[in-house]
């Protein structure tokens, strides 16, 4: 097997979310996909630029080495450091752009956007109506990097209470994702095996 043509999924920062007396505190999970194309999924808040650059340097990469930025949706804790990646194609929800050019691609048809044969961006609306997720095939299994489609591994009883735009759609895409992948990288927690949720449902 050609190792140079393989992808590796590296969670740079685990997201979190918690309630406080004055509101809530949260940041998203930020994931690096290393391989033939280098891809960042969800870039945290605008105050995380130095942390993100340092984490990339630890992986032997600079911001200019990133080919794609994918933001699973447009909330501020998922798009804050997009400005760092000025050489990359940006996919923010259903919008695909580079520099001042916006590309015609209609995620609302349900079709995936293929970065290559092993990485695709799929529409998974529900949390917002323009949510997307990234599915990656690796030699260790398949990964779904889902943003807030999944809050964390123990969200089965709470996800629909978190201000979702369409709970029915989100439930549909959650169930489909669990069938597609071996591992899930959620929006606000550590990566987990998809079978964890199947086992809890038994």
Describe the protein.
The chain is built from four helices and 15 strands. The model has no long low-confidence stretch (mean pLDDT 95). It is 17% helix and 33% strand. The protein has a seven-stranded mixed β-sheet with strand order 1-4-5-6-7-8-9, with helices on one face. The chain is an alpha+beta fold. It has a single domain (3-201), classed as Ribonuclease Z/Hydroxyacylglutathione hydrolase-like (Metallo-beta-lactamase, Chain A), CATH 3.60.15. The protein has helices spanning 49-58, 76-79, 167-180, 195-201, and strands spanning 8-13, 16-20, 23-27, 30-34, 39-41, 68-71, 89-92, 95-98, 101-102, 113-116, 119-123, 132-138, 141-147, 183-186, 192-193. It catalyses: a ribonucleotidyl-ribonucleotide-RNA + H2O = a 3'-end ribonucleotide-RNA + a 5'-end 5'-phospho-ribonucleoside-RNA + H(+).
Summarize the structure.
This is Metallo-beta-lactamase domain-containing protein 1. Homodimer. The chain has helices at residues 49-58, 76-79, 167-180, 195-201; strands at residues 8-13, 16-20, 23-27, 30-34, 39-41, 68-71, 89-92, 95-98, 101-102, 113-116, 119-123, 132-138, 141-147, 183-186, 192-193.
Elements, N to C (H/E): EEEEEHEHEEEEEEEHEEH
Radius of gyration: 16 Å
Largest sheet: 7 strands, mixed
C-alpha geometry:
globular
Helix content: 10-25%
Q: What is the typical, i.e. mean, pLDDT?
A: 95
Tell me the name of the CATH class. Alpha Beta
Structural class: alpha+beta
Strand order of the largest sheet: 1-4-5-6-7-8-9
Helical run tally: 4
Subcellular location: Cytoplasm, Cytosol
Subunit structure: Homodimer.
Catalytic activity: a ribonucleotidyl-ribonucleotide-RNA + H2O = a 3'-end ribonucleotide-RNA + a 5'-end 5'-phospho-ribonucleoside-RNA + H(+)
Protein name: Metallo-beta-lactamase domain-containing protein 1
């Amino acid at each position: 097997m050609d190792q140079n043509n393989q992808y590796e999924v590296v969670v740079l920062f685990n997201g979190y979310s918690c309630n406080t007396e004055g509101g809530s505190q949260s940041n998203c999970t930020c994931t690096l996909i290393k391989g033939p194309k280098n891809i960042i999924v969800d870039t945290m808040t605008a105050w995380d630029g130095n942390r993100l650059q340092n984490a990339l340097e630890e992986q032997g990469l600079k911001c200019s080495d990133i080919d794609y930025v994918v933001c699973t949706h447009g909330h501020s804790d998922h798009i804050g450091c997009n400005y760092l990646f000025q050489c990359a194609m940006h996919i923010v929800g259903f919008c695909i752009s580079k520099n001042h050019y916006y590309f015609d691609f209609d995620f609302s048809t349900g079709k995936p956007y293929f970065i290559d044969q092993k990485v695709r961006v799929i529409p998974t609306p529900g949390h917002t109506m323009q949510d997307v997720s990234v599915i990656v095939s690796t030699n260790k299994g398949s990964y779904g990097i889902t943003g807030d489609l999944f809050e964390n591994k123990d969200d089965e009883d709470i996800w629909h209470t978190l201000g979702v735009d369409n709970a029915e759609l989100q439930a549909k895409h959650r169930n489909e994702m669990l069938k597609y992948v071996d591992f899930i990288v959620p929006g606000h927690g550590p990566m987990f095996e998809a079978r964890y949720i199947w086992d809890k449902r038994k």
